[in-house]
Design a protein that fits this description.
With 128 residues, the chain is an alpha+beta fold. Helix content is 47%, strand content 12%. It contains five helices and three strands, in the order ααβααββα. Strands 1-3-2 form a three-stranded antiparallel beta sheet. A hairpin with a 2-residue loop joins strand 2 and strand 3. Helix 2 crosses helix 4. The N terminus and C terminus are likely disordered.
């Protein structure tokens, strides 16, 4: 029998409930009963969400007697941060181009394309 595939960080944070769980666990360790009290879903559902987060390495669990406590592990979020950094630079470049275009009163010189590299109204792309 093959093992269930582990969830990656992107799958884990795709769900809003799991993102809320991470916020709740940031900087503290809590038992599932306390965690479940913060959500309008069953304790079983909370446990399933915690399992997905644990499989992605975002949550660590620790047994204390009969109680299991959970805490957030931020290191796997670096993968997500690196991915988002690329798109942040992309949008910063586009917004900077838009700022330059707006500040020039729409009089871009040397290009028929608008601020985002797209031909605007009344403009045609020049052949390369």
């Amino acid at each position: 029998m093959s093992a269930q595939p582990k969830h990656d960080v992107f799958q884990a944070v795709a769900d809003p409930t799991r993102r809320q769980l991470l916020q709740l666990l940031a900087g503290r360790e809590l038992p599932v009963t306390v965690i479940a009290a913060h959500f309008p879903i069953s304790r079983t559902a909370v446990s399933k969400h915690l399992r997905v987060l644990a499989e992605a390495g975002l949550v660590k669990e620790r047994k204390i007697g009969r109680e299991t406590r959970y805490r957030m592990e931020a290191e796997p979020l670096l993968e997500l941060k690196k991915w988002l950094d690329f798109y942040e630079r992309f949008w910063e470049n586009k917004l900077e181009a838009l700022r330059r275009y707006v500040e020039s009163d729409g009089q871009e010189t040397g290009s028929a394309a608008g601020p985002l590299g797209i031909a605007g109204p009344g403009r045609t792309e020049e052949p390369s």
